[in-house]
Amino acid sequence: MPDAIPEAEIVTPRPAPPAGRKFPCPACGARLDFNPAVRGLKCPYCGYEQAIQKGLAGDVLERDIDGYLDREEAHGKAIPGRETQTRCPGCGAVVLLEEKVQTERCPFCTTALENKPESAEGMIPPESLIPFGVELKEARDGFSNWLLGLWFAPSQLRTAARLGQLTGVYLPYWTYDAQTVTFYDGERGDDYYTTESYTTRNAQGESVTSTRQVRHTRWYPVSGDVAHFFDDVLVPASHSVPGDLLARSAPWPLAKLEPFRPDYLSGFRAERYAVGLKDGLKNAKRVMQPTIDQLVRQDIGGDHQRVRSQKTRYSAVTFKPLLLPFWVAVYRYHDKTYQVLVNGHTGKVSGYRPYSWMKIVRFFVLILLAIGGIAWLVLWLRG
């Protein structure tokens, strides 16, 4: 009878690792995925870990936009390790694929992506990012707690949402810096008051003369200029997630941006830039405009302001192409798709949800019944 195998030598079978992927595990040859918990690469098959050295903040550069705007295509490159892309037939998102990956589901609408990846088109590649700091389990817990906190949600919603999957995705962004000088022309309004007499009748029908203060405004022509430096105006470069949903996922600690490394993308999806550098700058100027308007009105002063014209000059404009981490949940309810985002750095949850109008009607009916019951009780006690 053969000798028994010592307990220490018994090896538990593991799933076969996929072949031909980037960042191979030196222990078993499988792909290493980025793990937020250890802030490094980790093998999902044998547990091998490999640390990623944190880059220095000074390594994240601001690029002078003048050298890029007119020849953006000349700077086009593919992201290392993401040399292929595929367009989602459902929502139109262009997903950058990892090497050897030919099919998966779109992280924004769950449509199956076709097995026809093509070479990724050149673009200004991201040069910095905020790595994932929230693990999948933490993101799932945040998503579940968000669902539990929804008022008037359909009873079947939690079941439908559980069918959705959380996918880790890096979304593209631009940041812009700019020195602005705004020249304006308008009017300043200063209030003053005069005393006015008026006549009314009292309860006895007698005429009574009283006084009151009446406000007037004197207007004066004004002109001038205001200057302001805008730092890191953040502009999404994705069309796959609504802008208001992205805005609700803020804030982002842009001071913690790190130099881009392909290692950080391992195991996550990435979307290519859908908004170019020039259109991104236009959007950044729209973000800047309310601040400029406020500065102009503050400079005019007075109680009221009229701005007849203003013109802004932008100088020393620089930009950064970057990626930000999201966990994306997509679920369907009554043939409608809903998106929920979990900020991959802070864990903040924001998303769309359906309402149960039956629950809303029932709630207000109960309120009316309660009010009616209280009124009846008060009348009964008085009677």
What is the ordering of alpha helices and beta strands? EEEEEEEEHHEEHEEHEEEH
Number of helices in the DSSP assignment? 5
What does the average pLDDT come to?
A: 81
What is the percentage of strand-forming residues?
35-45%
Gyration radius, in Å: 30 Å
Which regions contain 5 or more consecutive residues with pLDDT less than 50?
A: 1-21
Helix content: 10-25%
Q: What coarse outline follows from CA principal-axis ratios?
A: flat
Structural descriptors:
5 helices; twelve-stranded mixed beta sheet; three-stranded antiparallel beta sheet; flat; alpha+beta; 383 residues; 2 domains
Q: Please, could you describe this protein's structure?
A:
By secondary structure, the chain is an alpha+beta fold. The chain has 2 domains: 1-52, no CATH class; 53-184 and 222-352, no CATH class. 20% of the residues lie in helices and 36% in strands. The protein has helices at residues 136-148, 157-162, 243-248, 277-300, 357-382; strands at residues 33-35, 40-42, 49-51, 63-64, 84-87, 94-97, 118-119, 128-129, 165-201, 207-236, 258-259, 269-271, 304-333, 336-343, 349-351. The strands form 2 sheets. Strands 4, 5, 6, 7, 8, 9, 10, 11, 12, 13, 14 and 15 form a 12-stranded mixed β-sheet that branches. The longest helix is centred in the last third of the chain and has 26 residues, at 357-382. The model is unreliable at 1-21 (pLDDT under 50).
